[in-house]
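User: I'm putting together notes for a lab meeting next week and I want to include a structural view of one of the chains we've been expressing. I don't have a solved structure, so I'd like a prediction I can at least talk through. The sequence is below, exactly as it appears in our construct file.
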Amino acid sequence: MSAKKTWHVAVLPGDGIGPEVIAQATRALDALAEVDSELAIEYDTFDWPSHAWHEAHGESAPADYLERLAAYDAILLGALGDPGPTTDPNRYLLSDSDSLAPLLEIRKGFDQWVCERPVRRLEGAPQYLADPRAADIDMLVIRENSEGEYVNQGGRLAAGTPNEVVTQTAVFTHRATDRIIRHAFEQARMRATSREADGRVRDFGGKTAQVCLVTKRNAQKFWGDMYTEMFAAIAEDYPDVATHHELVDAACMKFVSHPWMFDVVVASNLHGDILTDLAAVLNGGMGVSPSANLNPSDRSRPPMFEPTHGSAPDIAGQNKAGPAAMLLTAAMMLDWMGEEDPAAARAGARLRDAVAADLAAHAGDMRATDAIGDAVVAGVRAGRD
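Assistant: Thanks for the context. Below is the predicted structure for the 385-residue chain, given as structure tokens.
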């Protein structure tokens, strides 16, 4: 019998509502460990990165913070940005590029080259599309997370003058394109297998899985053509998976008009960023949408799990923030752990079920953050085996 795995998690509450929602996530993790003695999760909570740390130290995090995070199995992040509350005119504010810089540094520092955002609305979550088919959306949006439009290469010449010239260079490599597209096909296969086991087979022209590539190849020829050519070549290795291509503007329209046509969507860093936020609305909104930043090729490097929402400074510190997205993000972390640890897999399913049950029971109700946490913790404990 193998020894019990103990998972070590770095908890980064961050700014605004981050500390409030992450407190409910750690409560849920504690309850899950109480319910299942085979689950072992230890976590350390850090005051950085955050506006408060920057105000005190002149930087968002200690200079060695990436080295310190490297010692953990996973990172759980609350939110970064305006610390709120907005009623305080003297609150310490940073530019968006400064306050969100740690996100890019962590993603790049641990080569978290995949951002995954699942879209499958839970009963009780808001449904913004009137078409009843919207209740059956089942999509995974995969964003290339390591390069593309967000490499931040470029500069400004003659800044602030009429002669100013700005360059912002996007970089696309064969290596990163190959791995993100292959990952999309692998996920499509896995999702089809999981659906079959649940009796939910989908049909994409006679195939049970589909990958849709999103580019802007009609206007951005060079990287668009490379993505298209590599997508076609890689698809030959997955004859059981249907393929599809959309331009990003058309994809946005179709996400709204008939999102049920999509299965797995793979896109560049910028296009994926936009599409995943739109997909979050289809899921019921930012408040119920989780996400994961992963390095599937190297599990020794910590992934980072964060809700799709921001720091919501307008309600920070008021016990009003809905913690569902944070709790579902913690469930995604447990799913990732569950690839090695059956106890974590059970815990991820139990937590997701508890959040789903709470949403279904209180659809549309306005409740305090900690009251929702209480209900989910009670649901986790009620689900004791």
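A couple of points you could mention at the meeting. The chain has a mean pLDDT of 95. The CA atoms of residues 8 and 298 lie 17 Å apart.

User: Perfect, that's what I needed.
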